[in-house]
Amino acid sequence: MANESELNFEAAMAALEEIVGQLEHGDVPLEQAIDLFQRGMKLSQLCSQKLEQVERKIEMIVEEDGDLRKKPFGGGLDENGGEVLE
Length: 86
Description:
Layout: H1 9-25, H2 30-57, E1 59-64, E2 67-72
Helix pairs in contact: 1-2
């Protein structure tokens, strides 16, 4: 298997789902379960990092005063997800 940091999001999620499935069955020895859990946590962090990277790249095009401009994804939202009016 490739180095975990080299996995794309989909491959990391698939590996994480496989680990979760193995742990849910509960028929793995304790030491192996601990190893699987640790690997799962690393994969979870990797997926989270990749999602954050993608979120930073996404830009929304908004129309404001007749002009189109780019705005960072989620940049104008309050804590409830509503648009912040300036």
